[in-house]
Design brief:
mainly alpha; 5 helices; 2 strands; elongated
Length: about 140
């Protein structure tokens, strides 16, 4: 699916071998891109695992971690916006896969920031499950 290829450019680092995709490789990729699991999988962010376990954290840690997450998300939004600006200059129009992908990341981060603000307002109402025996089935 790959073949060795030549590269006339001078290496800007250690020696390397360049490869090109064969027709068979292009066909295999096209076939793989038609699989339904590309459209039906859900990722599980590590932050949600932390949230599920956070009731066992020491006093004050929950609020601290939310603040750290907010700082991280704000930095990521800024970084992605810079990347988007650069990509838009490169591709010259907003109708490109890279633009859509980066725009989605920005929207996801901004949505999570809104959600964090909601959680921070509701923190004082936080409580244990009222019916923990329900999970026992």
């Amino acid at each position: 699916m790959l073949r060795k290829a030549s590269d006339k450019r001078e290496a800007e680092g250690p020696e390397r071998q360049v490869y090109a995709v064969t027709e068979q490789g292009k066909q295999a990729l096209a076939d793989a891109l038609e699989r339904v699991d590309w459209t039906t999988q859900r990722t599980r962010p590590a932050f949600l695992t932390w949230m599920a376990l956070s009731w066992q954290a020491r006093r004050g840690v929950f609020a601290q971690q939310l603040q750290k997450r907010r700082q991280f998300l704000r930095a990521e939004v800024a970084r992605e916006k810079e990347t988007l600006e650069s990509v838009l200059k490169e591709v010259g129009h907003p109708y490109h896969e890279a633009v859509w992908m980066i725009s989605l990341m920005i929207a996801e981060f901004e949505t999570e920031l809104k959600w964090l603000a909601k959680v921070e307002k509701e923190i004082k109402l936080r409580g244990k499950a009222n019916n923990p025996e329900y999970a026992d089935g």
